[in-house]
Amino acid sequence: MFNIAVAQSGGPTSAINSSLAGVFAGAAATPEIECIYGSLNGIEGVIKDNFIDLRKILTSDYDRELLKKTPSTILGSCRYKLKNPDEDPSDYEKIAAVLSKHNIRAFFYIGGNDSMDTVMKLDAYFKEHNIQIKVIGVPKTIDNDVMNTDHTPGFGSAAKYVATSLQEIIRDSRVYSIPSVTIVEVMGRDAGWLTASSCVLRANGEPAPHLIYLPEVEFSIDKFLDDVKEAQKRYKAVIVAVSEGIRCDDEKYLSTGFSSELTDAFGHKYLSGIGKYLENVTAANIGCKVRSIELNVMQRCSSHIASLTDINEAEEIGRAAVKAALDGESGKMMVFRRMSNNPYRVEILTSDIREIANKEKKFPVEWINNEHNNVTTDALNYFLPLIQGEPEIEYRNGIPVHFRLDQ
Fold first, then answer.
1. Based on the structure, what is the number of domains in the chain?
2. Residue 254: pLDDT above 70?
3. 297, 338, 380, 406: which sits with the fewest CB atoms below 10 Å from its CB?
4. Are residues 104 and 211 in the same domain?
């Protein structure tokens, strides 16, 4: 008999708890696994020996089903960067001691790019010191920028929320007779996947957003203004979707003057403000009614409009992670490989963490049009399967019910 531990890290999503439910389900179905520990606040919880016994928390099928449809991270999160063990091995020594103390033989880390850095470092340290603990990464991020996987859990639900919100913004913007421009700022520091996904509205005959701008190609203010003026010849209410990280050159974020100078533990700057900046520029140069809308954190955890495909796949990839560890794999991340778009089919595999950690999967430049202000049909075909289906949401007093540790 042995135990396992699972933790969540990075930004929350609508599907990350479904992956946690999947890890739990896979472990609970394995007779040789006794305790299923959850680490509170990511790897920091492991260092501090701050665990909870998930078998005592998830006591019924109802609990597990509710957990799958609850957004954010019930175990809490962190953005903690492990140092190079050659420079400071103290964290690794604490982690190894804590895991060994609890007879934990497999550790699962659910997170994005930075979390996979932790998986890589832990696996390398354990192997170097002959510590028999398997380390498996389970991908998660609304940014969809993790390498070697077709897509990431959390992305489909965020894309569905962005598209739905844009459609409602479109309906609102068209009620007046005067010309207008509405600029919607979408998350995406270096990769434009989420902003690009707004193109799914075309599947229902919606021409908006009329303009889409991504960080993968250079952005020009003059070209942007020309694009808006051209769109105004056809549309009374012009809708623009723009990634928060668009840039005028390869090194400078356009929103620098409006964003916080603060960075996280991995050196990533907190971005926001490009929408407001473009609002001011548009108003000054075009003169019509202009509004900017920043979707902000609502993109991450809007489970009331989640994708059932996303929720189900997130659970499946969590289950698969347990099987991978039981099969002796370590230093791997679980990945999706798309086999077809129509019918939509994927398979779940493992990929070497060293090919993933500290790398970014950018939106394909070949899926951006020649004018650099929209995306192609290839993008639409890629996105559509990921937003299909709606989970059954339980309501109480008119409000969705969420699983909470403090209930």
1. 2
2. no
3. 406
4. no
* Structure confidence at residue 249 (pLDDT): 56
For residue 260, the model assigns a pLDDT of 43
Do residues 162 and 296 share a domain? yes
Domain membership flag for residue 400: no
Residues 6+ apart with CB under 8 A from 30: 322, 326
Distance CA 121, CA 357 (A): 9
- CA-to-CA distance for 163 and 354, rounded, in angstroms? 34
Stretch 117-124: mean pLDDT: 98
Task: List pLDDT tens digits, range 182-197.
Answer: 999 999 989 999 999 9
> In sequence order, what are the residues at sequence separation of 6 or more whose Cβ sits closer than 8 angstroms to the Cβ of residue 128?
none
Domain containing 244: what range?
A: 155-301
Q: Has residue 114 been placed in a domain?
A: yes
Instruction: Give pLDDT, residue 272.
Output: 56
The domain that contains 123 carries what CATH number? 3.40.50.450
Closest CA to 13 of 69, 66, 91: 69
One domain for residues 14 and 129: yes
Alpha helices, DSSP H, located in 144-297: 155-173, 193-196, 221-232, 274-285
Q: Are residues 61 and 160 in the same domain?
A: no
Tokens matching residue 356: 């993933």
Q: What is the mean pLDDT of residues 26-42?
A: 98
| Residues 286, 229 contacting (CB under 8 angstroms) | yes
- pLDDT at position 268 is 43
Is 381 within the bounds of a domain? no
Give tens-digit pLDDT for 350-391: 999 999 999 999 999 999 999 999 999 999 999 999 999 999
Residues 329 and 266 in one domain: no
Nearest residue to 172 (alpha-carbon basis) of 208, 140, 143: 208
User: What digits encode the pLDDT tens for the residues 85-107?
Assistant: 999 999 999 999 999 999 999 99
Q: Which member of 123, 143, 145, 227 is catalytic?
A: 143
Of 357, 378, 395, which residue is a domain's last? 357
CA distance to 112, 187, 268, per residue, from 264 (Å): 14, 16, 5
**To the nearest whole number, what is the mean pLDDT of the chain?**
93
61 catalytically annotated: no
The model's pTM: 0.93
Note whether 353 and 278 are same-domain residues: no
Q: Is residue 287 part of a domain?
A: yes
Phi, then psi, of 350 in degrees rounded to 5: -115, 155
Relative orientation angle of helices 61-68 and 16-28, to the nearest 10 degrees: 150
Q: How far apart are CA 162 and CA 167, in angstroms?
A: 9
